Amino acid sequence: MICRRRILKLLYVLFFFVSCAVVYNSYTKKQTQAPYCLGTRKQPWLPPDVCQDIKNTIAISEVKKFNPDELIEQVEDLQSCQWTGNATALRAVRSELHKCCDAVRNLLVTQENTHIGDNITYETQKHKHIEVTEEIHKMFPKTSLFSNKPIRSCVVVGNGGILLNSCCGSEIDQADYVFRFNLPPMNFANDTGTKTNLVTANPSIVTERYARLHERRRPFMDLVKTFEPAPILMAAFSYPSTTDVIFKVFYTLEEFGSKQAVIYFHPNYLTNLGLYWKTKGLAGQHISSGFIIVSMALEICDKVTLYGFWPFDEDTDGNPIPHHYYDNRLPKLGIHSMPSEFFFYSQMHSKGILKLKVGRCF
Ligand SMILES: *[C@@H]1O[C@H](CO)[C@@H](O)[C@H](O)[C@H]1NC(C)=O
Ligand SMILES: *[C@@H]1O[C@H](CO)[C@@H](O)[C@H](O)[C@H]1NC(C)=O
Ligand SMILES: *[C@@H]1O[C@H](CO)[C@@H](O)[C@H](O)[C@H]1NC(C)=O
């Protein structure tokens, strides 16, 4: 009898603590959200058969024939549909990408895949190459960043203005691995999260904003630190004219004793990936770094979610949005074909290969 009462008492105490923990948890979760993030979802969900129709329409359409205005509307509608992954479809894409490009082994120039005395051929100028001296070889990482074992969940954070006021930060931070582009400002935590595992940098940022690192370099290091501990990924062997400034980034991080690495895209990987997507109908001059990283993520992650990819100047409610979540500088025309790349993202979303998130995260 006494024993039973004791157990009951114990259960009460346990129950008390568990409910306290639950209440505390939801309270702190609310506390870490900015006030504008505390709303609730307004749009109703669409019926499953309507959703399936939209997905089927996108899945069978072709990149050469799609109508951007129609696609915008369809993708907006899909945000009110349940997304379901299709492991079979992902496996098929992964195996194709593995065959053409093999990101695990070839994404980066490493000491494993490149030896002293080798010549690295430039991606955009095949008649130019750089000889790998002992000094240059030392600047390469020993091995690939990735093992053959897939990462469970990856998030690729584009820099699109659609992220502004999205409140997607906490969702982004829950991923195992977060990719970002071109050293973006990190002071938008509620919208973009705080975590980074890999960040790319275009040489133009170093040239234009940091005087090619010929002057004071601490401001650049302060920027790099906001991505700790992520390595900085740069295309050192795409254009001969930018190799110097990219090596300068390496020297600067080394001189400042940074624990972050500078790593380099392998030009052959970029060439092969470009050819692969060309066979799929992507005719743009050069695929964007966003498209490169998404392709790579499909090879190494079991789940890929995209945020901040929306190459249009209005949000899903028709309100004007800036080009980036942090500024409204427009890209140079004619370099990438963002709407075509976006077509592929939405097609892969429809087929359950990746999840494309646009709009707000509640
Ligand atoms: C969101 O912003 C609030 C301030 O408005 C801040 O206290 C909180 O830490 C931020 N949350 C995240 C996840 O960054
Ligand atoms: C998943 O993808 C495979 C291959 O693309 C396809 O045959 C199958 O019908 C899809 N499954 C569902 C539930 O959509
Ligand atoms: C690399 O290129 C140089 C010419 O610049 C050539 O002499 C050398 O044989 C090449 N090395 C290899 C391994 O192809």
From TrEMBL:
Any Pfam family hit:
Glyco_transf_29
Q: PROSITE patterns given for it?
A: PROKAR_LIPOPROTEIN
Q: Which UniProt keywords apply?
A: Disulfide bond, Glycoprotein, Glycosyltransferase, Golgi apparatus, Membrane, Signal-anchor, Transferase, Transmembrane, Transmembrane helix
Q: How does it sit in the membrane?
A: Single-pass type II membrane protein
Q: What is its main location?
A: Golgi
Q: Which domain of life is it from?
A: Eukaryota
Show the PANTHER family listed in the entry: ALPHA-2,8-SIALYLTRANSFERASE, ALPHA-2,8-SIALYLTRANSFERASE 8F
Similarity remark: Belongs to the glycosyltransferase 29 family.
This protein is called: Uncharacterized protein
